[in-house]
């Protein structure tokens, strides 16, 4: 079973969460939308699978490298 970990690429806040654990996703689907410097930044999955864990909530402030979600194909 392959697992993809999705991390924050910059300091940002979680503007909107679009998935929950157990949600099936396709490659390129948006999991959450972050906000940084008044810009909306979609966070995408690179693989099809199922959201296993979601580590963020709306309004939370993230630091670069913080874990957002894990997606597995199994």
From TrEMBL:
Lipoyl-binding domain sequence ranges: 1-72
Annotated SUPFAM superfamilies: Single hybrid motif
Keywords: Biotin, Pyruvate
Pfam families: Biotin_lipoyl
Keyword Plastid recorded: no
Name used for this protein in its record: Pyruvate carboxylase
Lineage: Bacteria, Bacillati, Actinomycetota, Actinomycetes, Geodermatophilales
């Amino acid at each position: 079973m392959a697992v993809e970990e999705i991390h924050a690429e910059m300091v940002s806040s979680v503007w909107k969460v679009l998935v929950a654990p157990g949600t099936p996703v396709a490659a390129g689907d948006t999991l959450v939308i972050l906000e940084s410097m008044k810009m909306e930044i979609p966070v995408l999955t690179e693989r099809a699978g199922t959201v296993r864990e979601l580590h963020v909530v709306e309004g939370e402030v993230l630091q670069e490298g913080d874990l957002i979600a894990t997606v597995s194909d199994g």
